[in-house]
């Protein structure tokens, strides 16, 4: 559990302590609850009203649909999703009422949190606070509000919300309603992630995780991935390679190409970074 006040502290050793769950982040809990409520109201709209947003194009500003990847699903998936690009250009829904106002404020507040976290990561690596932001063209970086809707499932042992995967963002923040379901792989075992009320779960490593379903109540989660500018290649940091006397273990790739890779059949049940590893030969 990481207090955001430590992350914004003037003391580098305290700033470097942030890791998984962030509290005192400055985003009002009432705003977080309003964002969850707005997304729930969208998912409860009649199918006819949601149909115009149904698309499979990766970078459409607004899209909704069912399941994880319709082209490659191999298990019974139990999930609807809504993805809205909020930065570098803000997009919004006109229905349900109030979604636009809530999502605009929420996206601004969460981007500020992600920016401070990225600064802390830079300093924890012995770099200038704005090193990663500059290298990744953070001012043009992608921010997505990705809401997931998991209704109560009559046979949860035969279905899953989202299969094991890794995220594509530099920093992903996540909130959820009072139903847990996020699991991470730790020591070859799946571990349920319990978050404190009002906190963000923060994923800044390429951690293997999945979403489970239950037979008692609807679960809603909102993941907010923040990434580089789409045309920016992500590469190992030269200063760190030189400092450690290492050679690069990963090839470079633009963020847009990396997102395409994650959405492709090649990434099904395989961590995306495995495709970027430099082979021994």
Features:
281 residues, alpha+beta, Jelly Rolls, 8-stranded mixed beta sheet, 4-stranded antiparallel beta sheet, globular, oxidoreductase
What does this entry show, briefly?
This protein has 281 residues and is α+β, with helices and mostly antiparallel strands.
Please give the structural blueprint.
Blueprint: E1 2-3, H1 4-7, H2 12-15, E2 21-23, H3 29-43, H4 47-50, E3 62-66, E4 80-87, H5 99-124, H6 131-135, E5 143-150, E6 162-165, E7 171-176, E8 182-186, E9 189-192, E10 200-203, E11 209-211, E12 219-226, E13 233-234, H7 238-244, E14 253-254, H8 255-262
Parallel strand pairs: 1-2
Antiparallel strand pairs: 2-10, 3-4, 4-5, 5-12, 6-11, 7-10, 7-12, 8-9, 8-11, 13-14
Helix pairs in contact: 3-5
Structure description:
The chain has one domain (2-231): B-lactam Antibiotic, Isopenicillin N Synthase, Chain (Jelly Rolls), CATH 2.60.120.330. Helices cover 26% and strands 23% of the residues. The protein contains 8 helices and 14 strands. Helix 3 packs across helix 5. It is globular, with a radius of gyration of 19 Å. It holds the Pfam family 2OG-FeII_Oxy. This is Protein SRG1-like. One of its GO terms (molecular function) is oxidoreductase activity. Belongs to the iron/ascorbate-dependent oxidoreductase family.
